[in-house]
Amino acid sequence: MDFRRIEVIFIVVFAILNAYLFGSYWQYQLEAGTTSSSNSSENSTILKEMRNDQITYMPLSNKKMNGYYASATVDTSLKDNIKRLTDQSARVVDNYVESTLNEELTVDPKKPQKVLNTFVKNRYNIVYGSEYQYNPNLSTSVQVVYTQMIDGHPVYSKAGKLTFYVNASNEVTGYTQGHLVNEKQLREKSELISQTRAVTWLYQYNEIQNDSKVEWADLGYTNLLTTDNGVVYVPTWVIGIKSKSSTGIQVKRINAFSGVLIKKDHEVTTESSTQASGSTAASDDSSNVSSTETSESEATSASSDVSSTTNSTSPAKTEAGVEATTSTSTTY
Length: 332
Description:
Elements: H1 3-52, E1 56-57, E2 65-67, E3 70-74, H2 78-81, E4 88-93, E5 96-106, H3 113-121, E6 132-134, E7 143-150, E8 153-154, E9 161-166, E10 171-177, E11 180-185, E12 190-192, H4 195-204, E13 212-227, E14 230-243, E15 249-255, E16 261-268, H5 278-283, H6 296-307
Parallel strand pairs: 1-13
Antiparallel strand pairs: 2-12, 3-11, 3-14, 4-5, 5-10, 6-7, 7-8, 7-9, 9-10, 13-14, 14-15, 15-16
Helix pairs in contact: 1-4
């Protein structure tokens, strides 16, 4: 056999194969770059339209981020755990801790976390306090909010929230607490839409009034639907908007997977005319947050996504771009 001839044939074949693979790789890179460039150009155009409508915004990021569907359950053992708490009168109502401090705790209205961080981490003050982090976006002059975290991002849900109540003298009088347990990752991480894309889509949904400001846009987790095994949480861009016609900040939400508007708005009040007590706010969380509404179509889609091994992250807006409401709601 002519081994040298066979060797030459193999070299030629491998050279052709390498050239083909190299060409395919660069074609993919070119298409990806074209898509990215197109998205960037579209975002720039929309941001210019926003400025023309006198809408201002904080610096926005095009950074690609990842997230996953997660599940968690409401802690039903808080009644046993509050027994170790000291210097307060605490009780559990509907799986939420309601507590009044024996002595008020004075805080700096500009930086309340300086005092409260230490208080929260003490296991004799707060049950599982080390699991909560200060959330400046939800905090106001009358409430200081801490939230649990999923994958390093805050849980925007009453079930994972710790809320301190502050009186007119900047004294913390008490708190309410929800606690989530058994947090699980349901699927592998998938790419999310960027912060810039979320804000521009919110504008395209006509959810940002003229002459207003996008104060913040935070990636967090919000409850999507309730199952027999707990609550399913989805990565969500939570966006705070302040208009000149309102004294508070209106909060909007965009599904970070699909880009769909989640119709679950509420207003975070900045006025301090009404001071909430711990027990009152625990039973009526709508004093500064309205009820959560999730869509039937989104819930059905997520439910199938959770049990599916197919990974799809392409944006898919509904005809109206808005999620409808359904009975699977919980309090936000």
